[in-house]
């Protein structure tokens, strides 16, 4: 079913230029929005001021333009949205859904880990009073519920939040709002109806749905596209030294990104301008043709 109004988004962290893996995620989101007649927005997730920069944000926007991935409306910048996140935190506090946590990293070093290697909070501070003047994080009190959702690529998924994640941080002790809270507030603020993003964020989704329910916000429809890996099987990222998207040969790169998403363009179109490739791809886009496997090997040398 095609929704009356579709709003999709691409939300990179401006820590460096886009690489092939981020192009694949952006392309999937853009194509899905365009194929379904929707709007496509860009949001800069620059909460981590130390790792993010305006220069990187500018480069990312230039790269999107160069690859023909045009966006609608002004780019939303998370580092200017503290008031909105603070209001959401206040709403959570008002319903007793969060508690102050003074645990340090070393105090949590022995906490259990989930399958993703993330710490499962052991509940240490759940019953503490709010400390006065002391640095503390805010954590969401996770009730013993399981969160189910339907991923358009992966089908029905379910996570036992209390057991697999535990109470999670929405505002860090250093005052920065956590990714989970900012994403939920911004998706609602931007009217996002469809989230198409990389599978590295798959198991963040139940936390985000949990927050949406606490805050009375709508839950978008999710789809998680496979991650592109390097020859060593690692996700392409700045940490794994993925090269920036090339400034030349964009047509071939775009054709390879389409192939990675299960939409290889016909031979006669390879080598045509990005706009022609994208026109063909949005006409032929079927999200069910995106491969299910969590990783795909990067086809470029
Ligand atoms: Zn604690």
UniProtKB/TrEMBL annotation:
Residue positions binding ATP: 238
Pfam families cross-referenced by the UniProt entry: tRNA-synt_1c
Positions annotated to bind Zn(2+): 101, 103, 121, 125
SUPFAM superfamilies membership: Nucleotidylyl transferase (SSF52374)
Cofactor: Zn(2+)
Binding site for L-glutamate: 9-13, 45, 179, 197
Protein family (similarity comment): Belongs to the class-I aminoacyl-tRNA synthetase family. GluQ subfamily.
Role played: Catalyzes the tRNA-independent activation of glutamate in presence of ATP and the subsequent transfer of glutamate onto a tRNA(Asp). Glutamate is transferred on the 2-amino-5-(4,5-dihydroxy-2-cyclopenten-1-yl) moiety of the queuosine in the wobble position of the QUC anticodon.
Protein name: Glutamyl-Q tRNA(Asp) synthetase
Species of provenance: Thiobacillus sedimenti
Lineage: Bacteria, Pseudomonadati, Pseudomonadota, Betaproteobacteria, Nitrosomonadales
């Amino acid at each position: 079913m095609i929704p009356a109004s579709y709003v999709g988004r691409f939300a990179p962290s401006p820590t460096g230029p886009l690489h092939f893996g981020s192009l694949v995620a952006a392309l999937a989101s853009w194509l899905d929005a365009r194929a379904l007649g929707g709007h496509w927005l860009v949001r800069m997730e620059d909460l981590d001021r130390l790792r993010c920069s305006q220069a990187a944000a500018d480069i990312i926007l230039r790269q999107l333009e160069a690859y023909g991935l045009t966006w609608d409306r002004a780019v939303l910048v998370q580092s200017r949205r503290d008031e909105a996140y603070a209001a959401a935190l206040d709403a959570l506090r008002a319903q007793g859904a969060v508690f102050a946590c003074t645990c340090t990293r070393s105090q949590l070093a022995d906490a259990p880990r989930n399958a993703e290697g993330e710490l499962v909070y052991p509940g240490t501070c759940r019953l503490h009073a709010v400390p006065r003047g002391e640095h503390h994080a805010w954590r969401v009190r996770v009730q013993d519920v399981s969160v189910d959702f339907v991923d358009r690529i992966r089908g029905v998924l379910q996570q036992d939040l209390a057991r697999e994640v535990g109470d999670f941080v929405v505002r860090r002790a250093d005052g920065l709002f956590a990714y989970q809270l900012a994403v939920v507030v911004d998706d609602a603020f931007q009217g996002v109806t469809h989230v198409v993003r990389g599978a590295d964020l798959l198991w963040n989704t139940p936390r985000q749905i949990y927050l949406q329910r606490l805050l009375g916000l709508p839950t978008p429809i999710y789809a998680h596209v496979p991650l592109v890996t390097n020859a060593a099987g690692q996700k392409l990222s700045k940490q794994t030294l993925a090269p920036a998207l090339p400034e030349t040969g964009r047509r071939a790169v775009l054709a390879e990104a389409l192939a990675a998403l299960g939409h290889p363009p016909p031979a006669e179109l390879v080598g045509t301008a990005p706009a022609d490739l994208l026109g063909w791809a949005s006409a032929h886009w079927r999200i069910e043709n995106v491969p299910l496997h969590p990783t795909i090997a990067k086809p470029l040398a």
